[in-house]
Amino acid sequence: MGERFLFDGPDDGAVTILLAHGAGAPMDSASMTATAKALAKAGFRLARFEFGYMAARRTSEGRKPPPRAETLNPEYKAAVAELAADGPLIIGGKSMGGRVASMVADDLYSAGKIIGLLCLGYPFHPPGKPEQLRTKHLPGLTTPALICQGTRDEFGTKQEVPGYTLSDKIEILWLDDGDHDLKPRKSVSGFSAADHLTTMAEAVATWAGRLAR
Predict the structure, then answer these.
(1) Could you tell me which residues come within 8 angstroms of residue 56 by beta carbon, excluding any fewer than 6 positions away?
(2) What is the pLDDT of residues 125-162, one digit of tens each?
(3) Four-CA torsion 49, 179, 194, 119, nearest 10 degrees
(4) What residue segments make up the domains of the chain, in order of their start?
(5) How far is the C-alpha of 133 from the C-alpha of 124, rounded, in Å?
(6) pLDDT tens-digit profile of 32-42?
(7) How far is CA 115 from CA 22, 108, 138, 186, 209, in A?
(8) Is the sign of the CA dihedral 191, 196, 197, 199 positive or negative?
(9) Domain range 5-212, CATH class
């Protein structure tokens, strides 16, 4: 593979979205690809990139475990610099990728380099460990943010998340019966995974339209 970025959507899209992957799956996983295609269809220019530990899995025999999320902050900033997007940029990612983006967002936002933060399935806590919250930096967040979360995401459910102290810059889109990949059980919700990705992309387009004005 070797490419630094995977692109989807129109080259002249008004807004670019840069997405990082989650802890366990690469940038070209089925879930990341479906998400990128849905956002591209909504008119965004989409760029995906991989952290070094994940890229290394493609070349070497050893599967390195994911490092601590905060150690990846410099890598995310380097990807933003390398992408050098023309026009407005939103950063974000799936699960851990979105968490890393959320930790570098305010520096980039105050420097005028990004207009917003998009988290897809934010990992508020490890599954089964609701007391280990990963929200310390979120009450003070100054970057406009949209978190798209499945209501039964085991990293933060619709019952749990409203009890957390979060910045008023954060908006949350709840996807009915969605899991950590935003996938619903069709028999329970009446929705398909594709339905939820379309809803997510339309919500992101409306939100980004407000930010880019």
Answers:
(1) 62, 64
(2) 999 999 999 999 999 999 999 999 999 999 999 999 99
(3) -40
(4) 5-212
(5) 6
(6) 999 999 999 99
(7) 22, 9, 17, 35, 11
(8) positive
(9) alpha beta
